[in-house]
Specification:
Pathway: Cell wall biogenesis; peptidoglycan biosynthesis
CATH class of the largest domain: Alpha Beta
GO biological process, one term: UDP-N-acetylgalactosamine biosynthetic process
Structural class: alpha/beta
Number of strands: 26
Largest sheet: 4 strands, mixed
Number of domains: 2
Function: Cell wall formation. Adds enolpyruvyl to UDP-N-acetylglucosamine.
CATH architecture of the largest domain: Alpha-beta prism
Helix content: 25-40%
Shape: globular
CATH topology of the largest domain: UDP-n-acetylglucosamine1-carboxyvinyl-transferase, Chain
Keywords: Cell cycle, Cell division, Cell shape, Cell wall biogenesis/degradation, Cytoplasm, Peptidoglycan synthesis, Pyruvate, Transferase
Number of helices: 14
Strand order of the largest sheet: 24-25-1-26
Organism: Clostridium celatum DSM 1785
Radius of gyration: 21 Å
Length: about 425
């Protein structure tokens, strides 16, 4: 089994380049099958396992997928041979549900196995189904697969019962070639929602309002190939910002959009860290003891749920008491049991973690219980005294490209081993 071995206690110094956004790429790649003519050349794609998984799914559907380099894919979807996406790769990742909307839009039918992903709580697709049905599709779930079919897709006014990134993107994709103008309300406003909308428009779609409370999608007859570059990863950037503060280091995080990081920057500054914004970079330094704060996750522009687990590591070594209220997922504090193995003092009550800061953490054998929990454990290992061994790092590889290489370049003592 592959593990990460970290000897902590070093202040990280230097600069790091942020890759393309995982959460955007995993929706943009399925959406590329909407192009019935031409090829989609997509660059700034993160070199992560979730992307590799999507490459295999696209190929299994009959797409011609050419890897130009580690961060650029060329996808030719003109000769798709099946609308049946039922295999192990589909089952293993959450974002495979975007194939439902994409296949439904182009072929008016699809069969896609129910997705997996990180075990962070119930993540139903009822809002996706509500949207597909409003557009005129018949949806059934049989033997663990979602079947959708429609004679014709037509515009609808759809108000989502909850703010859902996945449902917003999936129904937006499904509406691109529906007859008329679809209006989506109570939508997610995350940067990667905007990025997917921009990608669809680059293919010839007519999507307006992404990033606001209302998205309008005017149906078009067809979509064609395009060249597109994925936005920087807000979550990877936030992880390195927190690592800089936790190790009391000095890191310049490059290739970012500072506005996407404002909620994280604000919370770090409230704690006493120094955050300096450039045009496409952020520098985080610490020159004083940090103080505890209260954090509540919320849809964008609020504090990202994907960053709260790394944040919990920082708060575990911060003076005073901190609170983290998780408003998105019910099981996103599972990693706190691993932090407690390293000496953290954390009590979980419902969806709230109560954290009393300690002077330092101690190295231990821990598990990455999910993707962002894995990032939390890496930061814990970087600040801990002694050696930390992190197992189940396949979760980390799903979302953080070459994480050990990036931290090693900043001065960390971190390596990958088979144990």
């Amino acid at each position: 089994m592959e593990t990460l071995i970290i000897n902590g206690g070093k202040a990280l110094q230097g600069s790091v380049e942020i890759n393309g956004a995982k959460n955007a790429a995993v929706a943009i790649l399925p959406a590329a099958i909407l192009a019935s003519e031409g090829k989609c050349v997509i660059d700034n794609i993160p070199d992560i396992e979730d992307v590799h998984c999507l490459e295999r799914i696209l190929s299994s559907l009959g797409c011609n997928v050419h890897k130009v380099n580690n961060n650029t894919l060329e996808i030719d979807a003109t000769d798709i041979t099946t609308v049946d996406a039922c295999n192990e790769d589909v089952r293993r990742m959450r974002a495979s549900y975007y194939f439902i909307g994409a296949l439904l839009t182009r072929f008016k039918k699809a069969k896609v196995e129910l997705p997996g992903g990180c075990p962070i709580g119930a993540r139903p697709i009822d809002q996706h189904i509500k949207g597909f049905e409003a557009l005129g599709a018949k949806v059934t779930i049989e033997h663990g697969a979602v079947n959708v079919e429609a004679e014709n897709l037509h515009a609808a006014n759809i108000f989502f019962d909850v703010v859902s990134v996945g449902a917003t993107i999936n129904v937006m994709i499904a509406a691109t070639m529906a007859e008329g103008t679809t209006i989506l309300e109570n939508v997610a406003k995350e940067p990667h929602v905007v990025d997917v909308a921009n990608f669809l428009n680059s293919m010839g779609a007519d999507v307006k309002g992404a990033g606001t409370d209302v998205i309008r999608v005017k149906g078009v007859k067809k979509l064609v190939g395009c060249n597109y570059s994925v936005i920087p990863d807000q979550i990877e950037a936030g992880t390195f910002m927190i690592a800089a503060a936790a190790t009391k280091g000095d890191i310049t995080i490059k290739n970012v959009i500072p506005k996407h990081l404002e909620s994280i920057s604000a919370k770090l500054m409230e704690m006493g860290a120094i955050v300096e914004e450039g045009d496409d970079s952020i520098r985080v330094t610490v020159d004083q003891p940090l103080k505890g704060v209260s954090v509540k996750t919320a849809p964008y522009p609020g504090f990202p749920t994907d960053v709260q687990q790394p944040m919990s590591t920082l708060l575990s070594i911060t003076n005073g008491r901190s609170l983290i209220a998780e408003s998105i997922w019910e099981n996103r504090h599972k990693h706190t049991d691993e932090l407690k193995k390293m000496g953290a003092v954390i009590k979980v009550e419902g969806r709230t973690a109560i954290i009393d800061g300690v002077q330092n953490l101690k190295g231990a054998k821990v598990v990455a219980t999910d993707l962002r929990a894995g990032a939390a454990m890496v930061i814990a290992g970087l600040v801990a005294h002694g050696e930390t061994e992190i197992r189940d790092i396949g979760h980390i590889d799903r979302g953080y490209p070459h994480i050990e290489d990036k931290f090693r370049a900043l001065g960390a003592d971190i390596r990958r081993e088979l144990r």
